[in-house]
Amino acid sequence: MLRGGLKWMFLIIGTTIGAGYASGRELWQFFGHESGLAIGLFALFFTICCLVIMSISYQRKSTHYLPVLKDIVGRRLTGIYDVMIFIYLFTTTVIMIAGSGATSQAFNFSYWWGISIIIIALVVLFLKGINGLLSINQFILPLLLVGLLFVLLWFTIDQELNLFSHWDEQRNWTAAFPFTALNILPLIAVLGAIGNKVQSKQEIWIACVGSGLTLGVISFIYNNSLIQIADELLLYEIPLFAILKHYPFQMLVLMSVLLWFAIFTTAASGILGIVTRIQDYIQQPLWLIVCVTLVTMIPLTALGFSTLINYLYPIYGILNLYVLTRLLLFPLWNKIEDKKT
After folding, report:
1. CATH number for the domain harbouring residue 201
2. What is the pLDDT of residues 27-78, one digit of tens each?
3. Is residue 263 in some structural domain?
4. What are the TM regions of this chain, as residue ranges (predicted)?
């Protein structure tokens, strides 16, 4: 039970902590000053949403996201959100691939060299199907979380920061809604693909509460660190590097490797959501669909990492607010619809 719960917890975190989140770019886009309450609300909303999605997926024993989506948004809107999820997964995976290129540039390597590496790695990963993704998540994510927390706490202690010094200033609390909404669609896609593999409701609770608390704590500490170096962030495409410049080069190398794996696991989760949906129509090997999908993504990566995040993430955050509302009010919505029928 515990092992299964942790496996799904790492899948949820791996889907959420990608290039945008781990680099700090996504957090700074939505939070920043006066956002402590917003981050607390995000952790709560995120936990509730994961519980609803995983519970539906478990009940349906689903192998892709469409049955789960129908229960969440209703039959009338399923077609619209089906297309929207597909486009969302496609473009955010492009962002992850572009993030790999940006990471390689930080070490004066070619942007396209970084892109080539992640594409080859994704193809190799899916030669083992879904199990390959689950295995790498359980190995890589604990290292990433420990490494990220270590750097952030070290920075907090080194700079003598008070994590709760501005707790009375919370005017940005509404940011919790678009930020949570932004991260919902990929979770529907990924968790909808593993419903037939979940063994018990206890696994669901461990996975959802554990991921919500973990992301809440890291987000709060990370955002507080970024506030201290706000003036420098314009100079960095990846804000994490603005923090790491205060530390030895070895730390920069280690965190860059872990950042790349965060990018990789989120790209893999996005690809999983896409190809399991395509496989419902085209009965071809998973790795072949992965190859074709990745080839179509390559031209879009030329737009650049920060450009894609700055324009696409806020749009998705707003568009997904309806899904967030449905998830948070799901028990109430179900009772109303049951009375109608």
Report:
1. 1.10.4160.10
2. 888 898 888 899 999 999 999 999 999 999 999 998 888 899 999 888 888 8
3. yes
4. 38-58, 79-98, 110-127, 139-157, 177-195, 204-227, 247-274, 286-305, 311-333
